[in-house]
């Protein structure tokens, strides 16, 4: 006897001579957590020079498919995604006031130090990246 089961449907029992019967199943769905799997080691990539990002400015950079920006807040540098999580607006063309960037499209605000959303319509924080400075070069870990 062969037993076939399809989620949300019936179970079919097929015998060797080709006869079959159908039984309804009561399925219980449970939420499962996926294992993240092995972590891929990332590397630091040179993205710009310190002089490219004066205090109070944002500098857009592309690292592979990642659209990032390096932001200088009172001499401290931060790296984060530059695409708004609400829509696909480029935040590096937005407005920086202190450590908060405002999206030029729908005016969502994000803290550049943490990526946290400061106000709607965005609800998802921006990804942030580790950054280091060696000499006059800025590197981001991706």
Overview of the molecule:
With 142 residues, this protein is an all-beta fold. It has a domain at 44-141: Rieske Iron-sulfur Protein. It contains no helices and 14 strands. The chain has strands at residues 2-5, 10-14, 20-24, 44-49, 58-63, 66-73, 76-81, 95-97, 100-102, 109-111, 117-119, 128-129, 131-134, 137-141. The strands form four sheets. Strands 5-6-7-12 form a four-stranded antiparallel β-sheet, with no helix packed on it. A hairpin with a 5-residue loop joins strand 10 and strand 11. Residues 1-14 and 22-39 have low confidence and may be disordered.
Map the helices and strands:
Elements (H helix, E strand, L loop, with lengths): L1 E4 L4 E5 L5 E5 L19 E6 L8 E6 L2 E8 L2 E6 L13 E3 L2 E3 L6 E3 L5 E3 L8 E2 L1 E4 L2 E5 L1
Antiparallel strand pairs: 1-2, 2-3, 4-14, 5-6, 6-7, 7-12, 8-9, 9-10, 10-11, 13-14
